[in-house]
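debug: dumping io for the single-chain case to check the tokenizer round-trip. Nothing else runs in this session.
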Amino acid sequence: MGAETAMNLRGKNVLVTGGSRGLGRAVVKEFCTEGANVFFCARNEKQLAATCDELRPLFGSTQKVVAHVCDISEEKEVAQLFERLAGEFGSLYAVVNNAGVQEPIGIFEKVDWTAWRRTIEVNLLGTALVCHHAIPILKANGCGKIVNLSGGGATGPRAHFSAYATSKAGVVRLTETLAEELRDFRIDVNAVAPGPLNTRLLDEVVAAGADKAGAQNYAQAVEQTNKGGYPIDDAARLCVYLGSPASDGITGRLISARWDPWSELQQHRELLQSSDIYTLRRIVPKDRGYDW
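debug: decoded output
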């Protein structure tokens, strides 16, 4: 893949949220493989420590891999996260907002409201809060990258997953808005749809069963579990590509790891800058050939 030869991340400092397992862990590993120093966080201290112990011996002593316990929906904890990041790394080049939750699963009026609100707080407000703290540091750096994880429900309705879908659609609009605000500061902001991965989110759908998840969603989850899903490392590579100089000038896009030719996007950078390709937009009758 052409993009893999030009990541140019050696010595650059990266923050990854939700980095202790699943896609987040794969993203941390890929950034380390490309030479970056990685500061990553999650809520579970034991999982963080285990991931750190596993990754540190794989990379040179000149690289830093640092873990920090943090709930990104808590303002005080995020402030502490960035205080420690400043002490450990000083500068910051890229942020990957991967931390997220999916529950509650079920029909909207029947789900637990506290759990519904919690998903918005983590997926949307937590992502925004991390960006809020990171942007001044990226501006001071003179350039940078923000990669926000979106996905299921962002581009279309997803019955039985109303909180998750709503939060992820909000993440895309936040991404597009920040991309416009930060364009003149050479800070690229993009969202990633990672594809159907076999992670804990899939396990939660299977555990919820057909009654809560919906018959079709449940059947698809079971089939995906059996077949293995989309390769998690491919989704991680897209996150690293968008978090590297290889993607300079590509901004304000929602890019699918599974469906889009992301390794070739630099060839189409000028067209992307002048079009609404890979964005969320309202469809009007004229777009579909109607004159009303």
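debug: round-trip ok. The first helix runs from residue 22 to 33.
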